Amino acid sequence: MNWYLQTGKESDVITSTRIRFARNLQGFKFNLKIKTDIEKLKNKIKENLYLIGYGLKYLELKDMDDITKMSLVEKNLISPEYALNKNETGAILINDEENICIMINDDDHLKIQVFSSGFELENTLNYSIELDQKIEEVLGYATNKKYGYLTSLPTNCGTGLKASVMVHLPALEKTRNIDKVFYTINNFGINILGEYGQDNKNNQNIYQISNKRTLGVTEQEIIENIRVVANNLIEQERNARKFLAKDTIDLEDTIYRSFGLLKNCKKISLDEVQSLISNVKLGTDLGILKELNDSKIQKLILFTKPASMQKFLGEQYEPLERDIKRAEIISQIMEEK
Amino acid sequence: MNWYLQTGKESDVITSTRIRFARNLQGFKFNLKIKTDIEKLKNKIKENLYLIGYGLKYLELKDMDDITKMSLVEKNLISPEYALNKNETGAILINDEENICIMINDDDHLKIQVFSSGFELENTLNYSIELDQKIEEVLGYATNKKYGYLTSLPTNCGTGLKASVMVHLPALEKTRNIDKVFYTINNFGINILGEYGQDNKNNQNIYQISNKRTLGVTEQEIIENIRVVANNLIEQERNARKFLAKDTIDLEDTIYRSFGLLKNCKKISLDEVQSLISNVKLGTDLGILKELNDSKIQKLILFTKPASMQKFLGEQYEPLERDIKRAEIISQIMEEK
Q: How close A177 comes to chain B (CA, Å)?
């Protein structure tokens, strides 16, 4: 099963972990703009792919339909900017499990990404380092004694490492502590963003936290910093849940009403569904809601997103039908044995 | 089964029919205020009750607890004013089926009421007349050649007859035609009031329509007038439902969301429950909602009202618990086989 449909350690709060290395190859300019240069880069990667292994396949963005591309964005496998700006020249390396996805010729030649369910900083980092070393062996990176791995943007220099975890913070939101948390985390050298990195707040109460600095710190220091902040968030969120659980009936009422609406609606917007899913996820995580389980909730999170919906249904539909189809998918997922 | 838990003719729109006669006995002043006079009146009725028959039992309001009294109001068997003002001296004659309820010493000596489920003007009137004649034989009424039956209030004079039907008009409400309907009906010599006669609008979209005039018209003319207006309302409401049903998904969504909330809420106010019940009743009447039936809906309507809830549970509860208990009752009624 794909990592994004699984649950892992501490997944009541941390839904997933990602390690991303920004890397550039020797012998190529940074931030390639000229088509022949880009083709040369991609050819080098394609020709040597068999030496890298890891079950990676080479896919050009221009060979994908929009729905496939959008569903990669919805799964956080590629950034929305990459999907949009590299429509013609972009290409990715991806394996069947989709826990490795490498964007080629984003602002760097390679954005190597490794994903895990739940809270898995150490294992994901180790696996990423292994993969990174293999790619370096095969393709050769641009490095510098002073700055470490050289990157197109100075913010990615040094380790080139961005470590991030997705956190589900419904109780901090409901108890109106989320702004305080945002403020504290920002002062801690950590970014906190809505999913896809687009906005700070979202209906599903899922946020991405990641390191700001990549230079002058070691990889271990980066993940240690993220770990400390994440553990602090886990503690704060769990305390907020305990606080909410004191007024059991209010909490149960919110959770079960959300469940009832999800189960019975005949049309539903993305905004509403994400807010309801956030509530039922809180309900299963607290052991209040028995009618759903983690795996169904992971499916609900993914397959209610516009492009993934069409992947799930195996058919396209008119924009007007979207909210109706979404309700159908929800009911289908909920009724699965 | 009690009439108010049953459904009858045209019960998609007309939930029940009531015929009420205002009558006064010979040999007693109108509108008795002095306790000994009232006792005399009640004694005469009590002593002759065996001659009237109809399974009627004599009950004093002061022997009832507040919950019993309130539940009579909730079932529309006695008026809220009567329950409040005749707390000490009031008494009723009522049968086991509760389709006959006679208030003693309201503004008239007797308010004879007969109830039916659904749209049953003719049968209910005939049965009322039979009962009325029997009571007249036994107790003797105050009458006058010019004014017919004499009543304490001139508005009840003549026939002393108030015929009323309860109508469920959710589609006229949703299509925002209800104010127009109110306006037209008022000009037709017909009163339209919320349930209990308290206010014009209510969350459950159930209204009482009744004749304004009692003098200078025959009983047949009164019920004919109500029948015409009721039939017109049935037609307008059904047309509005057809109109709503054109946008099937919107209507289904509203109905099933209401069902989902009723089924899953853990606490709920009277206002909200009545609005949700109105929607699910519309759903079963239109054949859209299969998960409920008329009988369960009649139970939901009655047993979510404060006093009837306590009757249903067979126990009292703290006011703070009311919304929680209400949710429990709903789930219990819904799950009944």
A: 25
| Residues in chain B closer than 8 A to A252 (CB atoms) | 266
ipTM: 0.84
| Dihedral angle of Cα A237, A240, A241, A246, to the nearest 10 degrees | 170
Contacts of A261 in chain B (CB under 8 A): 257, 260-261
Instruction: Look at residue A219 and tell me whether its pLDDT is greater than 80.
Output: yes
Report the pLDDT averaged over residues A303-322.
Answer: 88
**Residue A335, CA distances (Å) to A91, B71, B256 in order:** 37, 40, 16
CA distance B96 to B106: 22
Please give the pLDDT value at position A197.
47
Residues 6+ positions from B294 with CB-CB distance below 8 Å:
B7, B11, B284
A74 pLDDT higher than 60? yes
Q: Pick from B253, B262, B327: which is nearest to A267 by CB? A: B253
pTM above 0.90, yes or no: no
Q: How far apart are CA B82 and CA B69, in angstroms?
A: 10
Question: With contact defined as beta carbons under 8 Å apart, do A56 and A95 qualify?
Answer: yes
Q: What's the mean pLDDT in B118-131?
A: 97
Q: pLDDT band for position A199 (50/70/90)?
A: low
A149, A222 Cβ separation under 8 angstroms: no
Q: Cα separation of B148 and B139, whole Å?
A: 17
Query: What pLDDT is recorded for position B186?
Result: 81
H-state helical runs in chain A? 35-52, 66-74, 80-85, 121-139, 170-174, 178-186, 219-246, 248-264, 270-285, 294-303, 306-313, 322-335
A264 lies within 8 A of chain B by CB:
yes
Helix axes A270-285, A248-264, angle to 10 degrees: 130
Residues of B in contact with A260 (CB under 8 A): 257, 260-265
Query: How far is Cα B116 from Cα B99, in angstroms, rounded to an integer?
Result: 7
Query: Across the A/B interface, how many CB contacts are shorter than 8 Å?
Result: 50
